[in-house]
Write a structure and sequence with these properties.
Layout lengths: L23 H19 L6 H7 L4 H7 L3 H13 L15 H8 L13 H10 L4 H28 L8 H12 L4 H5 L7 H18 L6
């Protein structure tokens, strides 16, 4: 059964004041916003294409013309949020000391829940992965593996400049990301344990300090 939003004011943007015709990109934005809203309000039981069309204030025909299935929609959503997790620094930012570079590169995305996804979306992916392994594989390849590579590139730069000594920067990048991102199982089992933005900021700063203290250029 399609549930109504917990807070109608939060989703009024999906229903009122919309332009007569939306571009494809604008429709995608509204669909993804509706997707997150539904998962937050109704969980997996509300994650149907019918409810999504209603929440995004469009016909099912329009929705299916853009995404032929929920799997296709989820894959497109993962592609979009994956591009917004961690991005390479600009040339100007790469002139900063390594501690500042890591702080900047790891604080780009304001929402960092577990692996950076809303809990209900992460729960959906875990639920559907046994039947659709390519969705889970894409999450790993497009988000997690890319994050590791970007951090490793920054660590390679630190090694080249003599700021740190690391033999395997890919392994070190995986370690740093594990230190920063809390284990999502606790929050999946008990959403009340979801870290606040302040807790995540404090954890990130502490993780970077501990990480860099473990890789020093002093080898006396």
């Amino acid at each position: 059964m399609c549930q109504t939003p917990k807070n109608e004011a939060e989703t009024a943007g999906f229903r009122r004041g919309r332009p007569v015709a939306l571009s494809a990109e604008e429709r995608r934005t509204e669909i993804f916003a509706a997707l997150e809203s539904i998962y937050e309000d109704a969980g997996l039981d509300g994650a149907t294409m019918d409810c999504l069309a209603k929440r995004a204030a469009m016909s099912k025909r329009t929705l299916y013309s853009m995404f032929p299935s929920r799997t296709a929609l989820l894959r497109a959503y993962l592609h979009q949020v994956g591009d917004d997790f961690i991005r390479p620094l600009t040339a100007e930012d790469r002139t900063l000391p390594i501690a500042e570079r890591l702080e900047r590169i790891l604080s780009q995305r304001p929402r960092q829940q577990g692996c950076g996804l809303p809990l209900e979306v992460l729960r959906l992916i875990i639920t559907e992965t046994p039947a659709m392994r390519d969705v889970g594989r894409e999450l790993v390849d497009r988000i997690i593996a890319v994050d590791h590579r970007i951090i490793a590139d920054e660590l390679d730069l630190g090694v080249a400049r003599g700021e740190i000594v690391i033999e395997d920067t890919m392994q070190a990048a995986a370690l740093l990301l594990d230190m920063i991102r809390p284990w999502p199982l606790e929050s999946l089992l008990d959403p009340a344990r979801l870290p606040t933005p302040l807790m995540m900021n404090e954890r990130r700063s502490l993780a970077i300090r501990v990480f860099l203290n473990g890789f020093t250029t002093n080898r006396d």
